[in-house]
Specification:
The chain is an alpha/beta fold. It contains 4 helices and 5 strands; from the N terminus they run E-H-E-H-E-H-E-H-E. A 5-stranded parallel beta sheet has the order 2-1-3-4-5, sandwiched between helices. The longest helix is centred in the N-terminal third of the chain and has 12 residues, at about 15-25. The radius of gyration is 13 Å and the shape is globular. It starts with a strand and ends with a strand.
Amino acid sequence: MKMKKILIIDDDVAVINNLMVFLMQTGLFDIVGVNDSREVAGLLDRETFDIILLDMDMPNVSGIDILNDIRSKGSDITVVVLTGIGDVDLAVKAMKLGVLDYLIK
């Protein structure tokens, strides 16, 4: 069985590390973590991912901007929002952009 490739995008390195440790224990995933949102566009141009775990509140490039960029390129990659922002309007906007789920940390 081919391992699924997951991209974790969060400005909090501790969150990335905790998720990576948890997910790596399953042996089912190849995981990449990025804590600088400015690196995401280039990374997505170079690599293919099956799933993205995306924070919304980040300096430089926001999660919603990253999501807009992903969708504007026609990508139907599975995106799960994992964020500390419990904003209903932001959640609705993200869901309209096709996120699978919007989870509050």
